[in-house]
Each structure stands twice: as C-alpha cells, then as structure tokens.
Design brief:
Largest sheet: 5 strands, antiparallel
CATH topology of the largest domain: Helix Hairpins
Number of strands: 5
Distance between the termini: 10 Å
Shape: rod-shaped
Oligomer: single chain
Structural class: alpha+beta
Order of helices and strands: HHEEHEEEHHH
Number of helices: 6
Strand content: 5-15%
Strand order of the largest sheet: 2-1-5-4-3
C-alpha cells in the first residue's frame, strides 16, 4: 500500500471516528427529542379527533372507516369496556378481543389504568405505537385508539437519518479525496525528510566506518606501544638491577680505594719517619767520620810524640797503627755508609715523591669515583623516575585501550541505531 494512501486512510479514519462519535451523540439527542415531540403530537392529534365524535355509540362502521382511514397513518379502532373491537378501519378486525385474540394483556391493562396515553408494543412481529383516549358515552366506557407502525410514525425521522447517512458517505468520499492529496503532500515532505535521513545515515555510517578503522588502527598502535612499554619496563628493571649491582661494586671499590689511600698515607708517614731516621744515621755517620778523623789526627800526633820520647815505641807504634787502621776503617765505613745513606735517602725521597704523586692520583681517583657515584646516584634517581613514568604510561595505555573499547561499543550502538532508523525510513516509504 502506498504511503499517501496510508496517510489518507489514517486521516479519514481519525475524522470518521470523530464524526461518527459526534453524529451518534448528536443524533441520539436529536432523535430522542424529536421522537418525544412526535409521540406527543401523535397523542394530541388523537385527542383533537376525539372531540369530533359526539356520541360514539351511534357511529356507524362506514362512517368510522371513511372518517378515520388515512394513508400511511396506521389504523384506528374503538374498544369497549370488555376489550372487544367494536369499530376498526380494517373491518376484518372487528370483534377481536384485545387479550384473548391479540394477546395484548399489558396494553389492555395500561389502557384501563390511564385515561389517555401512548404505548409501545410488538404485534404481528412488528414494533408499533398506539395512542388512546378514554370516552364515556351513555354510562359505558370506550377507548378510541390510533395504532401505527414504527416506520409509519417515524418516517420523517428515518428519512432524515437516511439523508444524513448519504450526506455522511458523500462527505467521507470527498474528505477521502482531500485527505489523499493531503497525504500525498505530506508524503512528499516525509519522503524528502526520509531521503535526508538516508543521506545523513549514509554519512554517519561512513563516518562510523572511518572512525572504526581509525579506532582499530589506534588500538593496534596502542597495543604495540603497550608491548614496547612492557619491553622498556623490563629493560628498565634489568638496567636498574645492573645499576644497583654496579653501585654496590662501585661502593666497594670506593671503600677499597679509600682504604688503599689510607694505607698509602700510612706508608708515606712511615717512609717519612724512615727518612728522619736515615737523617739521624747520616748525622751519626758524620759524627763517626769526625771521630775517625780525630782519631786519625790523634794517631798522627801519637806517632810524632813517640818519636820524641823514649817509650815503648814498638808497642805504642803498634797501638797507633791499630788506631790508625781503626780510624781508616771507620772513615772508610763512614764514607760507604754515607754513600749508602745517600742512596737510601735518594730512594726514600723518590718513594716519598712517588707516594705523594700516588696520593694525588688516588685523590683524583677518589674524586672521579665520587663523581661516578653521583652519576650512578643520578642514574638511580632517573631510573626510578623512568620506572614511575613507565608505570604511569602503562596505566595510561590501559586507559586508552579501555577508551578505545568503549568507543568501539559506542560506534557499534550508533551503527545499530542508524540501521534501525534506516529500516524505519524504508518502512515509511
């Protein structure tokens, strides 16, 4: 079914429901009021006709038929107080008993209880109305009645309803045509909107596809980054372990160098003490040399004096020779000791200079090791910072992956909604 036809039927249905409801309510009020007026007029006309009868007991059947027979106005009859029809516009009905023959017990009861009125009943399978008035003549009671079918009594009301229904049908046809073109006009606008929705949906679908591809690529890059971060973190941990081991070794080396430095200082001090001792030995050697020279002089003097005095020259000469020999040996020993002491002093001086140079170099080494220790300490701090940065990066990467996953889910939900929107648009078409 075309969309414009659907809209026209929908508009027509809504209007028809509204109009039918309005018609039913209005018609019910109108028909009830009109039915009441017709029934009142039906009874009132009978009352007027009653006054045209002066003495009902003297009315002949022919007169009654001629006077009360009217086209499309039902029939008239007169019932006596016993319930028998004594007059009737249909001669075949004269003599019929209202209860025994017509079986209208309720009507007869109603007529006896009221002087005038209108009553609705079913007779011979047809709905009828009867208006009656009680007439008293020569001490007897009669009932003048006018009976008519529903169709005859409310013929104008039925015609009015028929005309209204025809007008309603014609109006509905006209309104259907109008609603069809209105629906067609609405359909054009809706189709235009649907086309815009489809174009928008296609653009959104393309955008979603591009973003999905970008998100997939981003996810791949993020996973590779996460893998590299994990490898970097492992390298950082290994490097940190190596740095920590190197730091321990460096501290051990620094302690050994400092210990060696202290030992060198102690050795230098001992060397300086030895140098002082050697200086004392040199002084002692000089004194020995002076003594040997003095002894030599004394030996020479004793030799001279021996030649002058008459003493045991041989013994004294022997003693002088021995003293001289001793002085010579002492002098020789002193010279050799001096030479040795000078060599020792030179060696000690060289050793002291070397020790001082070594101390200086060791001081430089110590400073270098201290610098290395500071560098290592800086490395350790940087490693800690880098490790913290690596952990933060891993957390960030995990958050990015979660965000990408949520983006995928959001894009998928948008895609499903767009597909549903497109399907709805196709259904509208």
């Amino acid at each position: 079914m075309k969309l414009e036809l659907k809209y026209s039927l929908a508009i027509l249905g809504i209007f028809a429901i509204f109009f039918v409801a309005f018609f039913i309510i209005s018609w019910d009020l109108f028909s009830n009021n009109l039915r009441t007026e017709i029934l009142d007029s039906f009874l009132y006309s009978l009352k007027i006709e009653r006054y045209s009868i002066k003495d009902i007991s003297k009315i002949t059947e022919d007169y009654f038929i001629e006077e009360f027979t009217k086209e499309n106005s039902g029939y008239y009859y007169v019932i006596d107080e016993k319930g028998y029809a004594i007059l009737h516009t249909d001669p075949t009905k004269v003599g019929i008993h209202i209860v025994k023959d017509a079986k209208l017990d309720d009507l007869w009861k109603y007529m006896r209880e009221n002087d005038a009125g209108t009553y609705e009943y079913i007779f011979e399978g047809e709905k009828r109305y009867v208006s009656f008035v009680k007439i008293t003549s020569e001490g007897k009671t009669y009932y003048l009645a006018h009976a008519i079918t529903y169709g005859e009594l409310f013929a104008d009301l039925i015609k009015t309803r028929y005309y209204i229904l025809n007008i309603f049908i014609i109006f509905m046809v006209i309104f259907f045509i109008i609603s069809y073109y209105l629906g067609k006009w609405l359909t054009l606008a809706i189709k235009k909107q649907v086309k815009s929705i489809e174009e928008f949906s296609a653009n959104v679908a393309s955008f979603i596809a591009e973003n999905s591809a970008a998100a997939a690529e981003m996810e791949s890059v993020t996973k590779n980054t996460q893998k590299n971060i994990n490898e970097l973190d492992e390298l950082i941990q290994n490097f940190a372990s190596a740095i920590e081991e190197g730091r321990s070794e460096l501290n051990s080396i620094l302690n050994n160098v400092k210990s060696f430095f202290l030992n060198i200082q102690d050795m230098t001090q001992m060397t300086m003490k030895i140098a002082d001792f050697i200086n004392n030995l040199s002084d002692l050697n000089y004194k020995i040399k002076d003594i040997s020279e003095t002894v030599s002089i004394l030996s020479i003097n004793s030799s001279i004096e021996t030649s002058k005095e008459e003493i045991d020259r041989e013994g004294i000469s022997r003693i002088a020779d021995m003293i001289n020999e001793l002085a010579y040996d002492a002098k020789k020993t002193s010279r050799e000791s001096e030479k040795v002491l000078k060599n020792i002093e030179s060696s000690i001086t060289s050793s002291v200079l070397l020790s001082e140079k070594t101390l200086k170099e060791l001081s430089n080494v110590e400073n270098s090791l201290d610098s290395i220790d500071q560098v290592v300490e800086s490395f350790v701090n940087n490693i800690d910072t880098l490790s913290s940065f690596s952990n933060s990066t891993k957390t960030l990467i995990k958050g990015v992956l979660d965000g990408i996953k949520q983006t995928f889910e959001a894009l998928e939900e948008i895609k499903n909604n767009i597909d549903e929107l497109v399907n709805m648009a196709k259904k509208i078409e």
